[in-house]
Design a protein that fits this description.
Elements (H helix, E strand, L loop, with lengths): L1 H7 L1 H14 L10 H17 L2 H9 L1 H25 L4 H12 L6 H7 L4 H27 L7 H26 L3 H36 L1 H28 L4 H12 L3 H11 L7 H28 L5
Helix pairs in contact: 1-10, 2-10, 2-14, 3-9, 3-10, 3-13, 4-8, 5-6, 5-8, 5-11, 5-12, 6-8, 6-13, 6-14, 7-8, 7-12, 7-14, 8-9, 8-12, 10-13, 10-14, 11-12, 11-14, 13-14
Amino acid sequence: MLSRWLANHASAFIIAIALVTFFIPELFKWVHGNTQTVILGLIMLTMGLTLTTQDFKIVAQRPMDIFVGAVAQFLIMPGVAYLLVNVWHLEPALALGILLVGCCPGGVSSNIMSYLCHGDVAFSVGMTCASTILAPVMTPLLMQLTAGAIIEIDTVGMFLNILIVTILPITIGCILNYYYSKQESFKTLQTLMPGTSVILLACIVGGVISTVHDPLVERGLILFIWTFAVVFCHNSLGYLLGWLSGRLAGFNTAKKRTISIEVGMQNAGLATVLAGTFFAAQPLSVLPCAISCAWHSISGTILAGLYRSWDKRHGIIY
């Protein structure tokens, strides 16, 4: 099935779209402003359509696990982002992009990666739900704390934007799932959601590449490599520190793997839309977000594979 193929090859598909758009920037010129916001809302709707009441019960049933995960999520990634932009002396636009990625909630595909590496999938879903619910408050607040010195942050506007493009569509999806989940046609629709989400995320990345095409051409490969290096460090340190936080909390192996992935993989699609909406005067701020969209999927797949390889070397069979 095409949807399954897209979900399994999400990274390659998104990178391919980014490369094609770089050479044909007009391809995704239509993805900007409100269109970009609607696309992200649809991505969140696809997430909501696959969530059940049991997924939300996890938050109540495992409060300490979720608390540790939420604290790690909103402490480690913004903190590492703030450290990197100051150590690397990034220009304001790129700094805003990295900080925004750091202040966003965990990525939707982290649940898939947790499953692939034999992590605690229920914990992963619970963490994603919790961080997404907290995002309307935590993301603007953390941006004010970390980026307030760079640019004026519209915290109220950001709060409302995140509420509209994340919480509202997820809620609608959950309600539809609750009432129609037993219908065969709805189950068929759910199987299409992973592939649909990948296509929509690729559209957002394509729109970003169209937006930053001219500055990228003007400043060349150095700008891309420099930005990618910071994204790589941010993402990798998130995985490492997430795992260490799980170890400090006394988590078992499955939960340590899950918290490392949940912390390291961010909702870079949300960061991209927020950057385009609130930092339009700094167009390059969307570049770290776009790179993160692709790289987090690639690195998550690599990390899940490394965890599986470790299991095989030690004779652990699931």
